[in-house]
Amino acid sequence: MRALLLVDVQNDFLPGGSLAVTDGDKIVPVVNEVLEKFDLVVATKDWHPDDHKSFASQHFGRDVGEQIDLHGLSQVLWPDHCVQQTAGSEFSSDLDAAAIDHVIYKGDDSHVDSYSGFFDNGRRHATGLHDWLQAKGVTELFIAGLATDYCVKFTALDAIELGYRVSLITDACRGVDLNPGDVDAAIKQMEASGVVMIKSEDIET
């Protein structure tokens, strides 16, 4: 069984959002086109409390983009984003969200970030995604979403480690590139781990 996994296609990561990914909105029509190729679709949402410690606003004198030690983990400081129950946390209104079978919420512990759809960054707690996929008999994942060099990358790497066959739909992803070259490095890291790069038009029905 294969499934489409959509990572964080949320308003705050789209143009006009508080953590906008350049051309993030361009993936939505591509995602909508591939939805019909899958019988099973699962999506993740960043779901932060308003005092999440990954927010630069929670650290006096610190700026967005700085790195700190957060309870023993290296943490990039971000603008406030995807706060629970806000418009920024909602899926893009252009996304055909009715096709999504299940939503996984991540990043709801204020003390640790959660880039991956499977675990928090300390790998101390699972999100329930793996259990849900296993219950459905899923062995192969096609991943799309935002952002290539953060949540998409870590989700794909964890999926490989958990034993899934993983393909990244490259034209249905965009990256932050906080440091120039981050996206290219993420692609190379994913490929080296066994992730297959594929274009949306090459996905078989």
UniProtKB/TrEMBL annotation:
Molecular function as annotated in GO: metal ion binding; nicotinamidase activity
Entry keyword annotation includes Hydrolase: yes
A GO BP entry: pyridine nucleotide biosynthetic process
Domain of life: Bacteria
Pathway noted in the entry: Cofactor biosynthesis; nicotinate biosynthesis; nicotinate from nicotinamide: step 1/1
Matches recorded under InterPro entries: Isochorismatase-like_dom, Isochorismatase-like_sf, Isochorismatase_Nicotinamidase
EC number: 3.5.1.19
Name of the protein: Nicotinamidase
